[in-house]
Amino acid sequence: MWDIKRFFPDEFEVGKYANQLLGDYLGQELPLDEAGFMALTIVNAELDSGNVAAQDLTQLMEEIMTIVKYSLEISLDDEDIYVQRFITHLKFFCERVLTDTGHQELDDNDMFDLLKIKYPSAYETATKITQYLKQTRNYQTSDDEQMYLTIHLSRMKRNVNEN
């Protein structure tokens, strides 16, 4: 349930509200887990593709967040704006992975080469994510996707180190 609250905070808040309304109607307090299940239902309805279930999306996001946390050796604060931006990017990225729709190449290899040099730990982490997805899901991450991951990871790490 905490992954749902972490990755889908707006949907979780709606689930809590619905949980409270239903509890009031029934005259009894419902477990908070029910709000998580309602949030998953909302997320499933929001997803563009009927082929992606919120549970699969949440699981993949958590797997990638684990790689990030251990690879960058950082503690992630869900209230941090850079963590929130990364999670937002990660939602769309994971949806593309699960639907195998990929991201179109933009042919900006110069920028990507610069990022590799300037942010080696973020690039290394993005590479670990890429390798993990290739091994576990047979998904080939594009250079553009890896570049965007590197950018978000470097911003997140820099902000964590500054605070």
Automatic annotation (TrEMBL):
Ranges where the PRD domain occurs: 1-51, 52-163
| Keywords linked to the UniProt accession | Repeat
Q: Which residues form a coiled coil?
A: none
Stretch forming the signal peptide: none
Q: Tell me which Pfam families the record gives.
A: PRD (PF00874)
**One GO-annotated biological process of the protein:** regulation of DNA-templated transcription
This chain's protein is named Putative transcription antiterminator LicT
